[in-house]
């Protein structure tokens, strides 16, 4: 006798591949997952830190991390789907550890392989003078809790400057979502989700040249 | 009761005359729909990109609707605002886009426009700032009343949304 499942599983693995930045040469990232209250992480690291990576001497080089990500989530409700929150830090000219950028993206929902370019942004100082002080003393404005960027509330107070991207690859598989009645893909789609997400990634890049 | 989940981000905007933009968003839907979980309106951060023309917001959208019918499928009302160096906010443009009906991942470019004033008003906008605004912003998605307006095109807002549906096949709806 088959008992109907009461929860579904989302299994994610992948890697933080690289970061494309112009203003600085070295970076390390802290990542964490933000999930809703109907979600639980069954396995995998909930948060972690990458190595400190530098650019190579080639012109236009990216900062390569190749940092593995693996996690399994169990949930009863797609609301609160996991988000990957990334905060980047590095050393400035005076040797202080300063924040270089924050970024967030939803773990892709459709099963398959997805490559996502997450823009990085940094909070701006309130005035030019504050900006100079922050640069001089190495105490740049940062979020008390980076997870705030994964929520809707309170964002209207933040003024940020975006620069650079972090590329992340996700491989996603779900279990029992269809058993619970959720439809996450239309059966008439003429492309596989991998083709669509790769095509969409190119479209996204082209859009900002429009 | 059928359910619809919309999970994704308002990624950013491009094609606007100045950077330092933010977006106010709101979900509008018919009377058969109810928001079960999630905020139905919000405002993104103000982003000033340092090297590219695209403002990046990465604002999370996570909505859970329950519905008794297909009419009044939810749509987003977007307003793009500009914040200048003195901290003054002026409205740049209006736009709307429907939440996609088919389940799956969708990359959406929502085009936007702003109302065009008379010659004097346009000159004022150019030198002092602050464009004409609609008295009733809900007009953006009403097909019956837009014929009265004269508008100027503005840039695009980029959204990446994933739609999940549940229990629609019990009612015979095919996706």
From TrEMBL, chain A:
<protein>
    <recommendedName>
        <fullName>B9 domain-containing protein 1</fullName>
    </recommendedName>
</protein>
<keyword id="KW-0966">Cell projection</keyword>
<feature type="region of interest" description="Disordered">
    <location>
        <begin position="187"/>
        <end position="210"/>
    </location>
</feature>
<keyword id="KW-0970">Cilium biogenesis/degradation</keyword>
<keyword id="KW-0963">Cytoplasm</keyword>
<dbReference type="Pfam" id="PF07162">
    <property type="entry name" value="B9-C2"/>
</dbReference>
<comment type="similarity">
    <text>Belongs to the B9D family.</text>
</comment>
<dbReference type="GO" id="GO:0060271">
    <property type="term" value="P:cilium assembly"/>
</dbReference>
<keyword id="KW-0206">Cytoskeleton</keyword>
<dbReference type="InterPro" id="IPR010796">
    <property type="entry name" value="C2_B9-type_dom"/>
</dbReference>
<dbReference type="GO" id="GO:0036038">
    <property type="term" value="C:MKS complex"/>
</dbReference>
UniProtKB/TrEMBL annotation, chain B:
<keyword id="KW-0206">Cytoskeleton</keyword>
<keyword id="KW-0963">Cytoplasm</keyword>
<keyword id="KW-0970">Cilium biogenesis/degradation</keyword>
<dbReference type="GO" id="GO:0060271">
    <property type="term" value="P:cilium assembly"/>
</dbReference>
<comment type="similarity">
    <text>Belongs to the B9D family.</text>
</comment>
<protein>
    <recommendedName>
        <fullName>B9 domain-containing protein 2</fullName>
    </recommendedName>
</protein>
<keyword id="KW-0966">Cell projection</keyword>
<dbReference type="InterPro" id="IPR010796">
    <property type="entry name" value="C2_B9-type_dom"/>
</dbReference>
<dbReference type="Pfam" id="PF07162">
    <property type="entry name" value="B9-C2"/>
</dbReference>
<dbReference type="GO" id="GO:0036038">
    <property type="term" value="C:MKS complex"/>
</dbReference>
């Amino acid at each position: 006798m088959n008992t109907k499942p009461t929860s579904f599983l989302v299994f994610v693995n992948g890697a933080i591949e690289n970061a494309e930045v112009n203003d600085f040469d070295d970076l390390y990232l802290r990542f964490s997952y933000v999930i809703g209250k109907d979600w639980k992480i069954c396995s995998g690291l909930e948060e972690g830190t990458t190595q400190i990576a530098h650019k190579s001497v080639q012109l236009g080089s990216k900062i390569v991390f190749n940092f593995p990500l693996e996690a399994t989530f169990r949930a009863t409700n797609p609301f609160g789907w996991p988000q990957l929150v990334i905060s980047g830090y590095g050393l400035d000219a005076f040797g202080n550890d300063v924040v270089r950028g924050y970024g967030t993206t939803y773990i892709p929902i459709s099963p398959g392989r997805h490559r996502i370019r997450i823009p990085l942004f940094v909070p701006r100082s309130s005035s030019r003078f504050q900006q100079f002080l922050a640069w001089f003393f190495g105490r740049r404005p940062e979020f008390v809790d980076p997870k705030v960027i994964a929520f809707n509330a309170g964002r209207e107070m933040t003024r940020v400057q975006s620069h650079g991207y972090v590329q992340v690859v996700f491989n996603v598989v779900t279990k029992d979502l269809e058993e619970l009645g959720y439809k996450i893909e239309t059966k008439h789609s003429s492309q596989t989700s991998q083709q669509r997400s790769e095509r969409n990634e190119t479209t996204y890049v082209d859009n900002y040249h429009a | 009761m059928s359910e619809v989940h919309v999970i994704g981000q308002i990624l950013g905007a491009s094609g606007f005359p100045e950077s330092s933009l933010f977006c106010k968003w709101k979900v509008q839907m018919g009377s058969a729909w109810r928001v079960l979980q999630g905020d139905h309106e919000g405002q993104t951060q103000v982003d000033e990109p340092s090297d590219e023309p695209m403002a990046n917001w990465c604002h999370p959208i996570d909505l859970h609707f329950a519905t008794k019918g297909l009419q009044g499928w939810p749509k987003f009302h977007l307003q793009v605002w500009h914040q200048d160096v003195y901290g003054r906010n002026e409205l740049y443009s209006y736009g709307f886009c429907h939440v996609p009906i088919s389940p799956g991942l969708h990359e959406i470019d929502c085009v936007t426009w702003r109302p065009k004033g008379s010659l004097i008003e346009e000159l004022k906008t150019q030198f002092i700032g602050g464009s004409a605004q609609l008295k009733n912003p809900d007009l953006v998605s009403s097909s019956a009343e837009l014929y009265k307006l004269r508008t100027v095109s503005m840039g695009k807002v980029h959204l990446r949304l994933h739609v999940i549906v549940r229990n629609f096949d019990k009612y015979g709806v095919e996706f």
